[in-house]
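Notes to self after the call with IL:
- keep both proteins in one doc
- input above output, always
- annotate only the second one for now

Protein 1:
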Amino acid sequence: MKINKIFIAGIMMLSLVACGDDLDIVPSQQKVDANLIVDQKSAETAINGVYYSYAMCGTDRYDVKSTKCSMYYEILPGDIAGTCTYYQGPYILETHGGSYYTMYNSYFWTPLYNTINAANNVIAKMGESEDSWFEGNRKNEIIGEAYCMRALVNLQLLVLFGYSWDNSSPYGNILRTDPSSVSTLKTQRSSVADTYDAIISDLDIAIEKAPANGKNCFATSWLAKGLKVRALMQRGQGNDYAEAAALAQDVIQNGPYALEENVVDVFHKNGLNSQEVIFGIQPKENQVDVTEQYFYRGSAQWYPSDALTALYENDPRKSAMVPVIETQSIVIDYETYSYYFVTVQIPVIGKHFPNAVFSSSTLAETQYQMRLTEMYLLRAEALARTGDLNGAKTSLKTVLAHAGYTDFSFVDAASSQYDVLQQIFNEEVRQFFCESGQDAAMMLRFPSDMVCAFNPQYADITMSIFPIPTDEFRYNAGISPSDQNPGYSAE
């Protein structure tokens, strides 16, 4: 399904969320300067600046305060994975090396490293702060939150720009652990193994120090545990799968979360009030960013891919997740440079829009970075990879039951490890398309033939990630053209 339309869009460079107006209180120059932390109040402002940066808060085209991250955490990773497609046709993988591809690599790179720098500033200054400035254990909690956010972003960078699937590869992250300055600009590229070690080290600190309780749009020790499960599953070395399964079970059994009776209610009814949400991004009041990205002025910009739509055939969530609607489409005749309108019935992305009402609302604009469902599915995947097929099926069927399934015969019929992984793959795609980038991450760790059957573009896995932006080679003397990802130029 490819529909050509006139392209009307604006992409802005984004600078720097969450629960409440307190995250609007950020330093006036919109960065987190280490010298700004002089007491608990300023420390809270600084850590809020990290969340503010991660949510890419700013002012939208209507001059409204907005979290502006739906394109980066939902849509473009979905396009890379092949779960959604742009209305003009192929957008990312099939056009690698083109203008959009090279444009978006820096759009990911810059804001994510801005968040890392914000976290580094907090970590550096908190290490120098006086214990007497803080009530109770708040100093350690803020430190834990900063480490958790740095790990979250480094893992996203590794999936988008590194060889996350190959622990022996030299193509890991440029690990920045100090506040940005002239003296720290020169930084070498780390190996994948060292990058995973750094991420997991940060998460271990966060597990120890971050608060166990708190709103689900702030980092907690439970989020850190969930991120460690992600990192271990993505790395997949040695005892990683067994450790991931145990850690996921810890979150499931002991964390303050519960699956929704019907998973659709997370998106269409409860939002961040859902007990299933471990970490999410709350929208600013009156923002329309998510709605405008998916449906620009009421016209769909992004559609579910044919492969995703096929996975929803006979699924109880189909009418909610990929509803079929009648819409007007513009068809372009490139030979005569003319266009005309046609009425079509076509599946659209309804995941974020209750009752297929494609207009902005708090529910439509809310984003979900981690849900308890992910822990069940990653546990199922980990158990399947260690050979515990019955345990994997049990965890998978729990998720399916909360998605409206009552007949699990297709799960029971899976007799081999590969067949069980196929069923888990299918459900992970259905659950996490256009959500927190997990659809793109999973494509890099499942069996290649399984992935290529869903998205043939992964036959050349070197083009499944972005190149390091040209500016990094221009200004960072610590790397050379040989550090660029294979298949791309440093120019």
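Protein 2 (the one to annotate):
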Amino acid sequence: MSGIPERDWKYLRSIFDEMLEELSRRINDEVRQVLARPDLSENEKRRRVYDVVQKRDRVVAVCFDDWRRSTVVERCWALQKHGLLTPAHIEHLDPQTQRWIEPLR
């Protein structure tokens, strides 16, 4: 595979920030849920927030790091796995790009 069509690359770049914002919102919501728990001590909240952020940073990395045209199909697999690249997004892509992404659909 030599990369995706330019049109698909531009489209994916145009929704990059939207997908990153959605993942960030989810992470922040998860942190807020931990902080809102009255049954946990402040230290336990701190430890759980640290765990959440550490685990979710790995998701951010696999979805958004090394964002290049030659690696974007792999990023799309990760984005799709984590519910960030939606079927509506995929419909905008060229049929060949859709087939490359297909294994996870």
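Annotation: The two ends are 19 Å apart (CA to CA). Residues 6-35 form the longest helix (30 residues).
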